[in-house]
Design a protein that fits this description.
Layout lengths: L7 H17 L9 H13 L4 H8 L3 H13 L3 E5 L7 E5 L1 H22 L4 H19 L1
Antiparallel strand pairs: 1-2
Helix pairs in contact: 2-5, 3-4
Length: 141
């Protein structure tokens, strides 16, 4: 059995995971989960969506998405409205509060990340910049 300290691939995975977790910790509200925040980001990017579309995009079950949307709606971050073209469907969209949550979370994350980058030397920053295309390729696969 290899540990993360002797397996370079595992060590890299753990480091990337720790960095992602640390970035995710910067958010405008402690009361919102990563899943809920992901739905808000998707709504901002894709616009109003049905609960089914959101469940598929976030790779969760319909009941799980419904619970997420219930919590977001109760917090005032999203609203559900009947679809214009099919009365049986509901469209979910961001409220002003939901938009503010995204903007503030993005600001906090940018601020934290910038502060971390300022502790690096120019050479260290160049190494990170050169790794960006590889990290993007891994993230998009």
């Amino acid at each position: 059995m290899t540990s993360e300290h002797t397996d370079p691939e595992e060590h890299l995975r753990v480091v990337i995971q720790r960095l992602a977790r640390r970035i995710r910790a910067e958010r405008a509200s402690d009361g919102i989960s990563d899943t809920q925040l992901g739905v808000l980001w998707r709504l901002q990017t894709d616009g109003a969506s049905t609960p089914g579309e959101l469940a598929a995009a976030e790779r969760v079950s319909a009941p799980s998405m419904n619970r997420t949307l219930n919590a977001l709606e109760a917090s005032g971050f999203v609203m559900r409205e009947p679809s214009d073209d099919d009365a049986r469907k509901v469209r979910v969209s961001l409220t002003a509060s939901g938009q503010h949550m995204i903007v503030e979370t993005r600001r906090l994350r940018r601020q934290w990340f910038h502060a971390q980058l300022t502790t690096l030397t120019a050479d260290e920053r160049a190494v990170l910049d050169s790794a960006r295309p590889l990290l993007e390729r891994l993230a998009d696969s």
